[in-house]
Design a protein that fits this description.
Layout lengths: L16 E4 L3 E5 L3 E6 L3 E3 L2 E3 L6 H15 L8 E3 L12 H4 L3 E5 L2 E2 L2 E8 L2 H10 L1 E2 L2 E2 L9 E7 L2 E2 L7 E2 L2 H8 L1 H23 L3 E13 L2 E5 L8 E5 L15 H8 L14 H19 L7
Antiparallel strand pairs: 1-2, 2-3, 3-7, 4-5, 6-7, 8-15, 9-12, 9-13, 9-15, 10-11, 13-14, 15-16, 15-17
Length: about 300
């Protein structure tokens, strides 16, 4: 039996909805923003049915955990994650418990800051075609899933419509200025190295990840989400090998299921089977427990 999941908070929040992403909803509280993380799940650019129970709770609480762990490296936008502090702004607090984050308002920097510790995924595909990743020349003979001697910083320009655009670091400097670009690169690599070491101690490989940054009073802060299964590629250490497709600790059950159907990827797919939804929910809860040692109440 699959427990109740949340697809939207529109009927639960007494505040204007100003942005609805594939998973997150952003509400305007005046001085602050309210982020609600739903259980919606997407694959191949489609939001799928049904939602995945506990997914939003894991994403929100895991981000909150990492924001707390990294304050010595960089400031972030979090004010609090306590739904009980929101009073009558939230109509059903139990429905949104563990799912909310009240944040300071930051001016988003329209760059996705990607750090790759291993050559895999889209980076591997670029390398096979060009011998480069985001314009960075790489040695011949690299093997899929191989570790880089030093992490690569491979930014992407954010597009609100369609896919983000992989760009070179020089292009990033042209778009936002060299000084800001250098700061984001340095902070991104520093954050990745910190989390990679932490994950290593918990028998997990952090293969790559992405960050978003904003400006508050001219100061760079970390925003959005960090080191979640939706923004990072986690591998179990005992699954690591070269030259294979490693099963990631995220929504892999959904991707595998869809890949095994005759879905054309150009139309809304049929609803996911309960077994796939449950397996995916279990994945998210497992990575949360492995990284934090905690367990979400009611899961």
């Amino acid at each position: 039996m699959i427990s109740q999941a949340i697809t939207t908070a529109v009927d639960l929040v007494n505040a204007p909805l100003i942005y609805k992403g594939k998973v997150r909803e952003l509400y305007d509280l005046g001085e602050h923003y309210l982020i609600v993380v739903t259980d919606r799940i997407s694959a191949f650019d489609y939001v799928l049915d049904p939602p995945v129970p506990h997914k939003g709770e894991v994403l929100n609480r895991l981000s909150a955990f990492w924001f707390g762990q990294t304050t010595h490296l960089i400031d972030n936008h979090v004010v609090h994650i306590d739904v009980d502090q929101l009073g009558d702004i939230v109509r059903d607090k139990d429905a949104l418990r563990n799912r909310i984050m009240v944040t300071r308002k930051a001016q988003r920097i329209d760059m996705e800051c990607v750090v790759r510790g291993y050559i895999t995924g889209g980076g591997w595909r670029q390398y096979q075609e060009t011998g480069q990743v985001n314009g960075i020349d790489l040695p011949e003979g690299l093997r899929k899933n191989g570790v880089f001697p030093n992490p690569l910083f491979t930014p992407a320009a954010k597009n609100d419509i369609g896919h983000d655009e992989d760009i070179s670091f020089d292009e990033m400097k042209n778009r936002i200025g060299a000084e800001l670009a250098e700061e984001l690169k340095a902070k991104s690599i520093q954050l990745y190295e910190y989390a990679r070491h932490y994950c290593d101690q918990h028998d997990i490989i952090l293969a790559d990840c992405k960050f978003e940054f904003g400006l508050i009073d001219g100061k760079v802060v970390l925003i959005d989400e960090i080191f979640t299964p939706d923004s990072s590629r986690f591998w179990a250490k005992n699954n690591y090998a070269l030259d294979i497709e490693i099963d990631s600790m995220d929504k892999e059950p959904v991707r595998s299921y869809l890949a095994g159907t005759d879905w054309d990827k150009n139309s809304q797919p049929d609803p996911l089977p309960d077994a796939v939804v449950q397996a995916t929910s279990d994945r998210y809860l497992s990575i949360y427990q492995k990284l934090t040692g905690g367990q979400l109440v009611g899961s």
